């Protein structure tokens, strides 16, 4: 695979997920926030096919953000592909930001029915899947959920390599080495990852704060304008009509990642802290309005919601879930590059790393205590606490206590940035954050 798309950095986690469904009747739908790498993944896949012997005339690629296709409707879309269809060869169809085409789903469904083809599409808003696609294609699709770079990908994209060396005490230490041979503690690189985030475009401009802010400003503006504010005219959902209220809610959620949050608490805080500018009389926005704005942010993949799960009652609770921001660089762009809330920032990293690995992630409640994450997939379950340090005895006890209360035999772990020991405690595994982020799970 090293010779494929040499100008593009590999995203093998996602490419392998696409390859697992190659040449099936399922439409492959890649979703994720703008600029997280969806277009590049389509290119990686089409280049893989070329290297695997698929001929050029079998591959049709359309980016609907190109001026060439900007005004195309569904009938023109269908005609464009039909003109290029081959009688005795399979077509491979790649459609980037397909939701920009009115009634695109009619054309895509027709391709699946009328032609011998393998279809790959991207979209930057979850509404594409929540209604249109599921209605028209009745489950004949698979979603590939794409995120910004993981810590491992960040290291690779920025030209670093990880090497394990033997320590004087006989143990092993991980070190990060750049192209000039300079050696860094992985924590130094992690600090950069937390500060600048994992948007792939940052690797092209370097870890320069001013340049990164400019890039993140462009991404944020595109998401808010194209995927939230402009979308109001294309769906029957409640309109997002107040850009100022939208930004206030974004700022609130960004400032409160990892904290229990309700729609009511958002409205109350906006009023109590004077964040609503509506003259001398500040009016609390209706809960339905706030919920609509929060839903729009989730659908645009800026924030993800983790619901609360009652471990003893074995049910999801309707209130006090938590929200996590898709990229810590975007959070720093919004709130400023300052030392804020390290514990919740680390929690944010672990949440998305678990999500990236295919887990469903919820917040655990057991009696009056909380477990940061319950991560499940298939028949696997993990109970996870995340903390900045396990060195202080009182912190260690606080983090271990809720896990001890869980009586089943599934894996229980504490992931810590700092830990002076990594032995199990009462059957609970202690894991260093760096080791967790760098472990091989492919």
List the helices and strands and how they pair.
Layout: H1 12-19, E1 27-31, H2 38-51, E2 59-63, H3 74-84, E3 91-96, H4 104-114, E4 117-123, H5 127-137, E5 141-145, H6 151-157, E6 161-166, E7 172-177, E8 183-184, H7 186-196, H8 202-205, H9 209-229, H10 243-255, H11 263-272, H12 287-299, E9 303-310, E10 315-325, H13 328-335, H14 342-356, E11 360-366, E12 369-377, E13 380-389, H15 393-404, E14 411-418, E15 429-432, H16 433-438
Parallel strand pairs: 1-4, 1-5, 2-3, 3-4, 9-11, 13-14, 14-15
Antiparallel strand pairs: 6-7, 7-8, 9-10, 11-12, 12-13
Helix pairs in contact: 3-4, 7-13, 10-12, 11-12
Describe this structure in words.
The protein is α/β, with parallel strands linked by helices and 442 residues long. The chain folds into four domains: 12-145, Rossmann fold, CATH 3.40.50.300; 151-205, no CATH class; 209-302, no CATH class; 341-442, Trna Endonuclease, Chain: A, domain 1 (3-Layer(aba) Sandwich), CATH 3.40.1350.10. Helices cover 40% and strands 22% of the residues. It has helices at residues 12-19, 38-51, 74-84, 104-114, 127-137, 151-157, 186-196, 202-205, 209-229, 243-255, 263-272, 287-299, 328-335, 342-356, 393-404, 433-438; strands spanning 27-31, 59-63, 91-96, 117-123, 141-145, 161-166, 172-177, 183-184, 303-310, 315-325, 360-366, 369-377, 380-389, 411-418, 429-432. A seven-stranded mixed β-sheet has the order 10-9-11-12-13-14-15, sandwiched between helices. Strands 2-3-4-1-5 form a five-stranded parallel β-sheet, sandwiched between helices. Strands 6-7-8 form a three-stranded antiparallel β-sheet. Helix 3 runs parallel beside helix 4 (104-114), helix 7 (186-196) packs across helix 13 (328-335) and helix 10 crosses helix 12 (287-299). The two termini are 15 Å apart. The model is unreliable at 1-6 (pLDDT under 50).
